[in-house]
Structure formats: structure tokens, C-alpha cells
Write a structure and sequence with these properties.
The structure is a homodimer of 278-residue chains. The model of chain A has no long low-confidence stretch (mean pLDDT 92). In chain A, the strands form three sheets. A six-stranded mixed β-sheet of chain A has the order 4-3-7-8-9-10, sandwiched between helices. A two-stranded antiparallel sheet of chain A has the order 1-2. In chain A, strands 5-6 form a two-stranded antiparallel ribbon. Chain A has two domains: 69 residues, Winged helix-like DNA-binding domain superfamily/Winged helix DNA-binding domain (Arc Repressor Mutant, subunit A, Orthogonal Bundle), CATH 1.10.10.10; 196 residues, Rossmann fold (3-Layer(aba) Sandwich), CATH 3.40.50. Chain A has 278 residues and is α/β, with parallel strands linked by helices. Chains A, B: One of its GO terms (molecular function) is DNA binding. Chains A, B: This is Pur operon repressor. Chains A, B: Pfam families: Pribosyltran (PF00156), PuR_N (PF09182). Chains A, B: Belongs to the purine/pyrimidine phosphoribosyltransferase family. PurR subfamily. Chains A, B: It comes from Bacillus aquiflavi.
Chain lengths: 278, 278
């Protein structure tokens, strides 16, 4: 066939994109295409260069008999920055203001292409971190959690505010909502989280951090470890933040219901991703 | 650069996969790579052939000045069949049995690679249908709904069982749960669904169809149209099915709690996808 290499490049690109953070042995590709391992190596060199050049992601080559190639998401600042700016503008729209100073965000969370991009940014930020599970709380955090988890190649566990028969035995904890100071309950199915798991907590919105803090307490109940916290929007001007270390894309400062003004800035994504991680 | 075409093929593959059901003008690619439109056409012919040959999807070329190329998901039966069989085996595990004959499915729904594959199958089945929105009900249907919606390039709207301040004004309806015959309420944010939208309803589980039927009533409230219904698992042996036309991947027949036996078969996916759609 005349475009043997072309076909391999297209199929390998698709395969790698569909299997992030998975070590694929060179022999797998060699067998798949009936090609020599040397040809596969050349193909991968081309894909690696293009992925990096075009900001698609990074390919890591592991040498040796048990080696292979691993694709992971790595977002360039040129991609992240305009996206976060666009998000800020979207969120600053005064039409979003709801009674009580709440913000309507359902349309943003309902847009898979935005959600997938948010997932890309978070997956990129945590690409070097050991993560076994992404945890979120129903309902609005779920889409973002899946977008991240898909790219990190790990399962999602969903904490709920109520008990369902379909969850089997559950662990239930009480927590104090940071902003309203009300005592609330969250439950997690006993079967869903293994001891010692490294957990990335993901949510759509964080005010004082009471809900996130509740999820951290849940981790203790399951003897699991906190690997990171990532939120789409954080709210500034909080007297007492209950959570220290987290990543945010957007920071909400002043919400003035009377003047119909929402003050939005970039979150700490770039600050966090500058020094320690890359 | 020596692998000009190679780079284009890799980047175009990634771009098309990230933009399903979107018409991309040839001039867009020509400009992106500084190439002649004739070279882009040749590239696309190679990608089209590989996508079809490898079962990645289909490329549709629209000729003319306003033309371009459109990628959409098209799953081959060779891919769908073993996957659905694997799903059946997974679900038939007697460890899933919960008190009351319910099934624990949280681990299946929590696995993004399974969920994404379910999304691929549904997106493929509805690739020729006009769909503007995917609708689901919180909580378990949400991951599947996003997986489908991503590939159909449409937003998701989430019906809820309770009212939240962050939803703004809502429309609330009562519906009768088909199996328990209890009256329940579901709400949908007024802003989230436009009049005349063509809606694909997606859920994880359907017994008699009361919940799906509730969502259909919700569509009437919003003057929206039903474009299709897709469920991961349907339950057989239902005296009175409230919904006629739907797609299912897995069919649950007998759940015998005492004998710890779950009888699972393939759903109607292949039946539905044989005659009318391809």
C-alpha cells in the first residue's frame, strides 16, 4: 500500500490520544501494522516532535525490554492563557447574576468543549503527580471530573449529598459548609475507593472550601491520600479559607448584585504551574 | 522540514478528532500549514481511508466554496460487539447484587474508558439524526450524556430531582415512577433549553421508563422535540413499558437475589442499527 507510513501515523495518533498515560510497548504497534520496530521508532519520533510542536501533548519513551511509549497531556501557556481569558469574560457577563449573588454557570458546565478544555488544563497540571482516582461531589463537578479522569486514565468516584439504594453500603460524614456554616452530610459508596489511593479532588466552584474540606475528611475515612485539589472557579474575599493548596482557573472577586457587576480574574493556574511543576 | 506531510497528517487527525460534526473548510487547513489546497485534499483522502479502514470514524467531504470536511464517529460492528459482550459479562457478576434486587453499577459508570466507549456507540447510532442537545437526569446518566454530547458536538442539559439556587428560574413537573408508581418531581433550569431543540435523552438505566417519560413531558413544557432515547441498561420483564422507541446496549432479564443470579443479554443496539440507519 502506498501510504503505509501515513496510515501508521494517523492510526497511532488516534491510538495514543485514546490511551493517555498508558505505556504502549513498541511491539504492540509493530504487530498491529506488521512493521519492524525500527520503523515504529521512526514513526514515534515524528509524532513526538509534532505533538510537542503543535501543543497536542508529550510522548515519553521508556527504553528497554519492558519499555514503550506513553502519551500525556501537556498544555502550552499559549493555549491555556487565551482559554482562561475567554472563561473570565464568559463568567463576567452580568446576565449570570442570580438572587443572593449566585452565578448561573449551567451553560458553561453544559458545554462539553469547554469542559474538555478545562479537563486538559487540569490533566496537564497534574501530569507528573501520582493520581489513582479523581473525586468530585454531585452534581456540577461531575463533568469536569470525567474530563480530567479521561486524560489521566483513572476512575472517578462521586460523593453524594444523599443516600441511594444503588450505592450499596456507604460511609457518611458530616461537614460544615464554609460559607453558610450549616452542617451537611455527604456519603460515598464503600466499594468505590480503595485504601491508599492517591486522590485528586475536582469541583466546579469553591467558596470558603467547606465542601472540599468535607471531601478531604472523606479521604481520611477511606485511608486515602490527597494528591491535589482543582477547581474551575474560586471565590475571593473569603474571611477564612479552609483549604490551602489548590489550583483554580478563574477567581471571582466582587459580585455586586445592585450594580450588576461581576469582577473576575485569572485563578492561580499560571502561578502554580510556573515554579514547581515545569 | 522533511516530514511536512507527516506533520500535517498527525495534526489534522488530532484536530478532526477534537472537532466532531464540525465543518472544517479546506482553507482553514491550507492556512494552518501554509500548504496548497490540493495537498490538503490529498491529506484528507489518506485520513479518510485510514479512518474508515481502522474503524476510527467517517470523513464527509462537502464540495463547493462553502464546503470542507466533517468528521463523525462511526463504530464498526467488530468494535461494538465485543464491547457489548464485555459489558454484559461485567454486569452479570453476582457481586453486583444489592438488597431489593438493585445492581451496583457505580464502578462501571465511574470508568471513563467504558463511559467514552458507550458514548462512541450512541454517537455512532445517532450520527445521521438531527440533534441539538443531549438531556439526562442527575446523577448517573451525566457521564454518559457528556461522552455522547462531546462526540455529537452539542451541549448537555441536566434535569434534577431537586431545586438549586444556582439554577435560576426552573420549570418543575411531576411524573410517576414506572416501577414504584410513586409521584416524583423533576426540575429543569428555564434558561437551559431553547424552544424547538431536537433532544436526545440519555440515561444509565431504564426500568418501566417512568423517568424517561418524565423527561419527555419536560420536553413538551419547553416546546422541544424528542430526537431519540438511548440507555445503557434496560430491564426486561416489565409489565407495562411506558416508552416505545429507544436504544439499549444491555438488557437485564432475570435478577434472582436468592440464587444470586443475574441474567444479562445484549440490548437492541444491533437490531436498531441494522435496517434503518446503515
Amino acid at each position: 500500500m502506498k501510504f503505509r507510513r501515513s496510515e501508521r501515523l494517523i492510526d497511532m495518533t488516534n491510538y495514543l490520544l485514546e490511551h493517555p498515560r498508558q505505556l504502549v510497548p513498541l511491539t504492540f504497534f509493530a504487530k498491529r501494522y506488521g512493521s519492524a520496530k525500527s520503523s515504529i521508532s521512526e514513526d514515534l519520533a515524528i509524532i513526538k516532535e509534532t505533538f510537542e510542536h503543535r501543543g497536542i501533548g508529550a510522548l515519553q519513551t521508556v527504553p528497554g525490554a519492558a519499555g514503550g511509549v506513553k502519551y500525556y497531556v501537556k498544555v502550552k501557556n499559549e493555549e491555556a492563557e487565551p482559554f482562561i481569558e475567554k472563561l473570565c469574560n464568559l463568567i463576567a457577563d452580568p446576565e449570570r447574576l442570580l438572587p443572593g449573588g449566585y452565578l448561573f454557570m449551567t451553560d458553561i458546565i453544559g458545554n462539553p468543549s469547554i469542559v474538555n478544555k478545562v479537563g486538559r488544563l487540569f490533566a496537564s497540571a497534574y501530569c507528573d503527580t501520582k493520581i489513582d482516582v479523581v473525586m468530585t461531589i454531585a452534581t456540577k463537578g461531575i463533568p469536569i471530573a470525567y474530563a480530567v479522569a479521561s486524560l489521566l486514565n483513572v476512575p472517578v468516584v462521586i460523593v453524594r449529598g444523599d443516600n441511594k439504594v444503588t450505592e450499596g453500603s456507604t460511609v457518611s460524614i458530616n461537614y460544615v459548609s464554609g460559607s453558610t456554616k450549616r452542617i451537611q452530610t455527604m456519603v460515598l459508596s464503600k466499594r468505590s475507593l480503595a485504601e491508599g489511593s492517591n486522590v485528586l479532588i475536582v469541583d466546579d466552584f469553591m467558596k470558603a472550601g467547606g465542601t472540599v474540606n468535607g471531601m478531604i475528611s472523606m479521604l481520611y475515612e477511606f485511608k486515602a491520600n490527597l494528591a491535589g485539589i482543582a477547581v474551575l472557579v474560586e471565590s475571593e474575599n473569603i474571611e477564612e479559607r479552609l483549604v490551602d493548596e489548590y489550583l483554580s482557573l478563574v477567581k471571582l472577586s466582587d459580585v455586586d448584585v445592585r450594580a450588576k457587576k461581576i469582577n473576575v480574574n485569572k485563578g492561580n493556574y499560571f502561578v502554580k504551574n510556573k515554579g514547581d511543576k515545569r
